[in-house]
């Protein structure tokens, strides 16, 4: 799917979706299945906001049981199971170990009951949780803190590459009647006779502008929803979540480990992801501008390192051991809770003639959210009644590449040179994946390629600087970049990486 000129877009469509994160991508997928003329607009790159900076977990939210959000947990668990079936190779089973220590609350009995409920919600085909003693726990994860260890609970959730999930939803849905564009801003809602009737659009690469008329507009901009809502949107409480990514050799885990931070008893976790180990997360009010990329604060930096030292004291990990950090803003609807983590993760809908808005929600439940939004739009136009069927087209196998690319994986293997399909350096990605993305996936900048189409910028040392020489000929051949433009793109990427992802902050 190449990025066409703004002037080539149709002047009228059935539906405009504003926002290229997981909610917008899910809507794009569901609407395209209805045979509608759909246009998705993203002002930056697809998944460049919250949807590439999540904890990458597809989970039911075990902690939501404690706060009484039973429906949200049930809905999330069911969607997790659906995604494990329908997006195999992209959404994968993630075993968890939760160590139990002397004097810890909740204790063994309460946790076993909560996990029993969790198992029942998942239904058949789900590995049941179980208790193991301290010796068994240490045999599985030798780096655990040993003092006071009684045993551990084992249970299952799932993980994904959040950015790649968004990209697969978009690229597998795109076609003649479904068009998605990145770096394209909806600058205003068009109105006629008291009804929204389209959007004014600007291409941020060449500054061209035009108007697109539509039967319905959906505002799916997440943390930025209030900007286009003109007062209809609920009040948001943007919360920042930050994470470390460590080399697997520095934080070696065979499964996810979840524990409570000693400072505030919030659940934190670390688990294997894309050949590295991901660790987080914080949950703090984000008071900076939502129009600047969020960054981990020195306080978060220290908080996370404290939590790591508490659970894995023998590893003696420091920020300099990490490969990268990342942060994102969660669009949580304000509920007046004193504790940010106590706020509900339920989504919120609003509407006016010709427009529906959506914000809040969870990565795991994006499909349910998309169908709820379309059902709301159908109250104004019956063409938007959501359909039935599988979320994704069937893929030939559950291999990693089939999960990441979906139906395009077969074509990719045929189109790309065999010599380029081997893993690049110590990463799980190949030059063939980079070439495919550059050729077909609307890559504009180097960070599109290295932070979202692949995650090289998060898992390779120094953002993958040592691999850039091998990436250069691909970008020059597929994107038409001159040697001079390549240097400009590299400079931009390395500055961005140093600002947002370099792990060695100065801690106050």
Layout of strands and helices, then pairs:
Layout: E1 12-18, H1 22-33, E2 38-41, E3 57-58, H2 62-66, H3 70-86, E4 91-101, H4 108-122, E5 130-133, H5 134-140, E6 149-160, H6 162-173, E7 178-181, E8 184-192, E9 195-203, E10 209-219, H7 226-229, E11 236-247, E12 256-260, E13 267-273, E14 276-280, E15 284-285, H8 298-311, E16 324-333, E17 347-352, E18 355-360, H9 366-378, H10 400-405, H11 408-415, H12 431-440, H13 446-453, H14 456-459, H15 468-479, H16 483-500
Parallel strand pairs: 1-2, 1-10, 2-7, 4-12, 10-18
Antiparallel strand pairs: 3-6, 4-6, 5-6, 8-9, 9-10, 11-14, 11-15, 11-16, 12-13, 13-14, 17-18
Helix pairs in contact: 1-6, 1-9, 12-15
Description:
The chain is an alpha+beta fold and 508 residues long. It has 16 helices and 18 strands. It has helices at 22-33, 62-66, 70-86, 108-122, 134-140, 162-173, 226-229, 298-311, 366-378, 400-405, 408-415, 431-440, 446-453, 456-459, 468-479, 483-500, and strands at 12-18, 38-41, 57-58, 91-101, 130-133, 149-160, 178-181, 184-192, 195-203, 209-219, 236-247, 256-260, 267-273, 276-280, 284-285, 324-333, 347-352, 355-360. Strands 3, 4, 5, 6, 11, 12, 13, 14, 15 and 16 form a ten-stranded mixed sheet that branches. Strands 1, 2, 7, 8, 9, 10, 17 and 18 form an eight-stranded mixed sheet that branches. It is globular and about 65 Å long.
């Amino acid at each position: 799917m190449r990025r066409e000129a703004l002037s080539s877009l149709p002047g009228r469509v059935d539906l405009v979706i504003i926002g290229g994160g997981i909610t917008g991508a899910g809507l794009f997928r569901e609407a395209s299945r209805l045979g509608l003329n759909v246009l998705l607009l993203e002002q930056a790159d697809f998944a460049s906001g919250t949807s590439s900076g999540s904890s990458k977990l597809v989970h039911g939210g075990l902690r939501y049981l404690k706060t009484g959000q039973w429906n949200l947990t049930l809905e999330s668990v069911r969607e997790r199971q659906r995604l494990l079936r329908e997006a195999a190779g992209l959404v994968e089973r993630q075993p968890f170990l939760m160590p139990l220590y002397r004097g810890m609350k909740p204790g063994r009995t309460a946790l076993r009951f909560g996990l029993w409920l969790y198992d029942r919600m998942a239904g058949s085909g789900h590995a049941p949780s179980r208790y193991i003693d301290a010796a068994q726990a240490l045999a599985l994860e030798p780096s655990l803190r040993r003092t006071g260890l009684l045993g551990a609970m084992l249970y299952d959730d799932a993980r994904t590459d959040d950015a790649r999930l968004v990209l697969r939803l978009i690229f597998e849905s795109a076609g003649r009647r479904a068009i998605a564009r990145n770096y394209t801003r909806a600058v205003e809602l068009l109105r006629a006779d008291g009804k929204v009737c389209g959007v004014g659009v600007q291409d941020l690469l060449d500054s061209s502008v035009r108007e697109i008329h539509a039967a319905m507009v959906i505002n799916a901009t997440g943390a930025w929803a209030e900007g286009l809502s003109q007062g209809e949107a609920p009040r948001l409480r943007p919360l920042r979540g930050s994470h470390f990514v460590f080399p697997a050799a520095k934080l070696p885990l065979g499964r996810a480990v979840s524990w409570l931070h000693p400072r505030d008893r919030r659940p934190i976790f670390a688990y294997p992801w894309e050949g590295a180990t991901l660790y987080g997360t914080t949950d703090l009010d984000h008071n900076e501008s939502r129009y600047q990329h969020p960054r981990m604060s020195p306080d978060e930096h220290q908080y996370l390192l404290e939590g790591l030292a508490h659970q894995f004291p023998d590893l003696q990990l420091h920020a300099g051991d990490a490969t990268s950090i990342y942060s994102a803003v969660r669009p949580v609807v304000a509920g007046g809770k004193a504790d940010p983590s106590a706020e509900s993760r339920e989504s919120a809908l609003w509407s006016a003639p010709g427009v529906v808005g959506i914000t809040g929600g969870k990565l795991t439940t994006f499909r349910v959210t998309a169908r709820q939004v379309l059902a709301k739009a159908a109250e104004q136009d019956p063409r938007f009644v959501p359909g039935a069927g599988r979320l994704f087209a069937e893929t030939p196998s559950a291999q990693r590449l089939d999960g990441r690319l979906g139906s395009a994986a077969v074509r990719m293997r045929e189109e790309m040179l065999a010599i380029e399909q081997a893993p690049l350096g110590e990463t799980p990605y190949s030059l063939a994946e980079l070439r495919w993305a550059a050729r077909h996936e609307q890559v504009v900048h180097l960070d599109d390629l290295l932070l979202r189409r692949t995650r090289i910028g998060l898992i390779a040392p120094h953002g993958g600087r040592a691999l850039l020489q091998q990436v250069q000929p691909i970008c020059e051949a597929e994107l038409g970049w001159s040697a001079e433009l390549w240097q400009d793109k590299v400079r931009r990427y390395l500055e961005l990486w140093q600002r947002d992802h370099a792990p060695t902050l100065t801690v106050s």
